[in-house]
């Protein structure tokens, strides 16, 4: 690997009442302006700073993968070489791979590739399980990293992909948590703000995910046609880059009640704020974080960091247990199927990447209908007896 680093990593010491500290920063030439740029990373972790240095080199196209002897390189180096060699990779896949590798290095350390084995891969999987991640999420992180090791095998840097031996976690099938009518009515009664009413209706009537709700902009609303356009956002002066899970874009129904709430929210916000589902205070904080290079992938998915805590408090006030915001989306998907929509139609509305995901709801719906039918049959027999 080239010894010359075009992105310099430097450390600046600082003194305070707590003692001597400091932070790393990156020093490089901006290829567009030719001017020298210095970016503070805002922390003193060397391992984390090295990964950020490598990312910036790939971003600027200055990373030299020549001379890389794979097995004798660290995990962070292999990730960068892999990304450099696969520049045509979709942006969402690229972001997921980087995020997964950051977690991997956090779990096992930035060890040499040749020393990585099954125990490390298993520790990576157990890390997410211990954090309470759902089985599909755990499996997706493992699947994001596995291709990197397969790619290294093709280059004869290693001979075994440890993730091939890691069994995927299975999710219990046949049960989908939905809100009963009485539960939703109780939740609606305790909501005292238009912002949360709009958020809840967007999930309950349009089937939007949390990230889709919070990244909803004025331009996504077509009140005349009665649709919401769920579409990715580019990085502009007023928006941050955001990708949709599974699909590039889709259209979902816009009910009049939600349209009225969105119009009311839009009128209360500054004209230069495109986002409808976050407050002006949160919006300007996120813009400021982006300018300082501190807007993380997690912040793009959930710009309002108090979202989960506030929704949990609403459920507690409504005396609803074991329910999440995502269950509102599950509820409307189930209702679409119960209303007679075909699975492939619901798949398009929900933005599922495969029909198997939609069929999970279809199976649960059929089970619910059979239970209702059994109860009705029992009553009929009781009447005859």
UniProtKB/TrEMBL annotation:
Keywords: DNA recombination, DNA-binding. Coiled coil: none annotated. InterPro entries: DNA_brk_join_enz, Integrase-like_cat_sf, Integrase_catalytic, Integrase_recombinase_N, Tyrosine_recombinase_XerCD. It comes from the Bacteria. GO terms for biological process: DNA integration; DNA recombination. PROSITE patterns: TYR_RECOMBINASE. The keyword RNA-binding does not apply. GO terms for molecular function: DNA binding. The keyword Translocase does not apply. Residues 174-375 form the Tyr recombinase domain. Belongs to the 'phage' integrase family. This is Site-specific tyrosine recombinase XerC. It comes from Anaerohalosphaera lusitana. The lineage of its organism: Bacteria, Pseudomonadati, Planctomycetota, Phycisphaerae, Sedimentisphaerales.
């Amino acid at each position: 690997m080239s010894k010359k680093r075009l992105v310099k990593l430097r450390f600046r010491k600082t003194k305070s009442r707590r003692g001597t500290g400091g932070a790393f920063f990156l020093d490089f030439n901006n290829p567009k302006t030719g001017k020298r740029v210095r970016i503070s990373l805002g922390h003193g972790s060397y391992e984390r700073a090295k990964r950020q240095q490598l990312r910036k080199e790939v971003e600027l196209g200055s990373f030299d993968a020549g001379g890389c002897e794979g097995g004798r390189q660290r995990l962070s180096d292999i990730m960068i070489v892999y990304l450099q060699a696969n520049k045509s990779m979709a942006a969402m896949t690229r972001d997921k791979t980087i995020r997964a590798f950051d977690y991997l290095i956090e779990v096992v350390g930035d060890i040499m590739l040749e020393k990585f084995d099954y125990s490390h891969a298993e520790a990576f999987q157990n890390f997410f399980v211990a954090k309470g991640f759902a089985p599909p999420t755990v499996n997706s992180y493992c699947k994001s990293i596995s291709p990197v090791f397969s790619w290294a095998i093709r280059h004869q840097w290693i001979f075994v992909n440890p993730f091939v031996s890691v069994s995927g976690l299975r999710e219990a099938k046949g049960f989908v948590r939905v809100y009963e009518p009485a539960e939703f009515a109780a939740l609606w009664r305790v909501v005292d703000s238009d912002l949360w009413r709009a958020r809840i209706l967007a999930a309950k009537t349009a089937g939007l995910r949390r990230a889709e709700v919070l990244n909803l902009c004025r331009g996504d609303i077509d009140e005349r046609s009665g649709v919401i356009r769920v579409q990715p956002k580019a990085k502009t002066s007023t928006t941050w880059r955001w990708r949709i899970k599974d699909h590039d874009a889709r259209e979902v129904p816009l009910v009049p009640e939600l349209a009225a709430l969105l119009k009311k929210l839009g009128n209360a916000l500054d004209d230069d704020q495109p986002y409808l589902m976050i407050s002006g205070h949160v919006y300007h904080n996120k813009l400021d974080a982006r300018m300082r290079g501190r807007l993380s992938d997690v912040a793009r998915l959930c710009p309002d960091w108090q979202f989960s805590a506030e929704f949990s408090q609403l459920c507690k006030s409504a005396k609803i247990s074991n329910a999440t915001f995502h269950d509102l989306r599950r509820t409307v998907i189930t209702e679409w199927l119960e209303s007679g929509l075909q699975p492939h139609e619901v798949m398009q509305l929900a933005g599922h990447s495969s029909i198997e995901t939609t069929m999970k709801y279809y199976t649960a719906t059929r089970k619910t209908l059979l239970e209702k039918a059994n109860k009705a049959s029992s009553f009929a027999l009781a009447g005859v007896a």
